[in-house]
């Protein structure tokens, strides 16, 4: 059935995944260039921490309004506007100098990239039946890890050969090309002329979110309801624990390799590939393929997703091992185990908003989840910078990350509960227009 109905939904997943790869190139470029920037502008470790986290400040602040706007205006226009803003911000970073101006450029980058993850989660809910949601979600979540696989060595080479500004010119050009492609190619299912009637029916009958359902109440009324739900808090707090470790690695791993293990910029870029490559594989094959296969075989949806998330975050505790070694190979092994586990927990977490959200509120639930996750992401590089500045060691940072992961596991286990759609309060949503299958039928001669 799956092969006969068509594959347009998977092309949309690839398009969204490429966007996330570029999003994270824009984050990796600063982590790789942070030591160069620190030397050129005479920055303290704490100032570097603020620069590394500044992107997440505007990104996190906008998650609630962006979630509501995604539910109201849709993925297509929100992401189009976002790509334009993040492209401009990336080019500007190459042109400015000094702590304050770089900070402002990173804040603007956060504004542009704010719709990317909750928008991809919402689009996946439109385009995919429930039984394919795991792999579809990992298509864009694994892209965040794969970006470091290709980005870290590429940017390290460019910086070594041409200087730190060249990293931002390169990623700016890539962002511009993607923006043109997204504008021309992305459509919601009801607008996609190439989507066959068979594939549209397959998507709808498989439990995809209804595309034309939007919140009837104001955005704040919707959030007021969602913030009272224990499931939402369990999901958001558990994801925050994951994101703390993820951003610790994303922002400080090259600096850790250069400062503690005394590697060159180029060598640190190559070493960075290993844990992120393993993370990409586990994200796709465990968080995506395995989850979908277990559910298709009839295993309970809640047990499968909860078990995978718990195992992944338990493996994340391997980060503690890196606190007790200065051997590059041993440290890389521990970090690879930790990132590999965290990686396959992430797409499971990102598939949950479209499974538990009341109709028309997937963007809002994803916004809450991403808000708390990125508040933890903001804290991670800043806390790491202060700890490094005062202890002259990364060991305490790895221990703190392990403790936070334990708290996250408890939130997933005891607050989230069963993974099923939450009840809808009266007058929360309304249906506008026609659904995807009806729209397909109207085009059949």
From TrEMBL:
PANTHER family: FI19708P1-RELATED, SOLUTE CARRIER FAMILY 17. The gene is yybO. This is Transporter YybO. The chain crosses the membrane at residues 7-25, 48-70, 82-109, 167-186, 232-253, 273-295, 307-325, 331-356, 368-388, 394-416. It is a multi-pass membrane protein. Its main location: membrane. Residues 12-420 form the Major facilitator superfamily (MFS) profile domain. It comes from Dictyobacter halimunensis. Keywords: Cell membrane, Membrane, Transmembrane, Transmembrane helix. InterPro entries: MFS, MFS_dom, MFS_Na/Anion_cotransporter, MFS_trans_sf, Sugar_P_transporter.
């Amino acid at each position: 059935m799956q092969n006969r109905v068509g594959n347009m939904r998977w092309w949309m997943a690839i398009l969204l995944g490429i966007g996330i790869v570029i999003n994270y190139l824009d984050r990796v470029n600063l982590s790789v260039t942070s030591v160069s920037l620190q030397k050129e502008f005479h920055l303290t470790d704490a100032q570097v921490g603020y620069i590394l986290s500044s992107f997440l400040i505007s990104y996190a602040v906008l998650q609630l309004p962006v979630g509501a706007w995604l539910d109201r205006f849709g993925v297509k226009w929100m992401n189009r506007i976002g790509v334009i803003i993040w492209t401009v911000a990336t080019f500007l970073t190459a042109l400015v100098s000094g702590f304050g101006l770089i900070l402002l450029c990173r804040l603007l980058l956060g504004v542009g990239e704010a719709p990317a993850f909750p928008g991809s989660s919402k689009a996946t809910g439109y385009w995919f039946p429930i039984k394919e949601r795991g792999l579809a979600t990992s298509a864009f979540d694994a892209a965040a890890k794969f970006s470091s696989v290709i980005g870290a060595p590429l940017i390290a080479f460019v910086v070594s050969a041409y200087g730190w500004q060249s990293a931002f010119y390169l990623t700016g050009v890539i962002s511009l090309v993607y923006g043109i492609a997204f504008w021309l190619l992305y459509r919601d299912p009801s607008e996609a002329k190439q989507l066959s009637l068979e594939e549209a029916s397959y998507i709808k009958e498989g439990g995809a979110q209804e595309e034309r359902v939007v919140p009837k109440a104001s955005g704040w009324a919707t959030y007021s309801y969602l913030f009272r739900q224990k499931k939402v808090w369990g999901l958001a707090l558990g994801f925050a624990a994951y994101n703390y470790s993820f951003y610790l690695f994303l922002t400080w791993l090259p600096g850790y390799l250069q400062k503690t293990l005394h590697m060159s910029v180029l060598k640190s870029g190559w070493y960075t590939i290993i844990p992120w490559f393993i993370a990409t594989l586990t994200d796709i094959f465990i968080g995506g393929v395995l989850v979908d296969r277990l559910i298709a075989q009839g295993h309970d949806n809640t047990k499968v997703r909860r078990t995978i998330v718990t195992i992944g975050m338990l493996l994340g505790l391997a980060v503690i091992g890196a606190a007790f070694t200065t051997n590059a190979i041993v440290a890389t092994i521990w970090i690879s185990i930790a990132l590999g586990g965290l990686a396959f927990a992430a797409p499971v977490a990102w598939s949950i908003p479209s499974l538990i959200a009341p109709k028309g509120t997937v963007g809002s639930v994803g916004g809450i989840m991403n808000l708390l996750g990125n508040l933890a992401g903001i804290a991670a590089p800043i806390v790491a910078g202060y700890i490094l500045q005062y202890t002259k060691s990364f060991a305490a940072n790895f221990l703190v990350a392990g403790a936070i992961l334990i708290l996250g596991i408890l939130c997933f286990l005891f607050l989230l509960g069963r993974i099923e759609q939450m009840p809808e309060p009266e007058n929360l949503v309304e249906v506008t227009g026609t659904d995807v299958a009806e729209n397909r039928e109207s085009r059949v001669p």
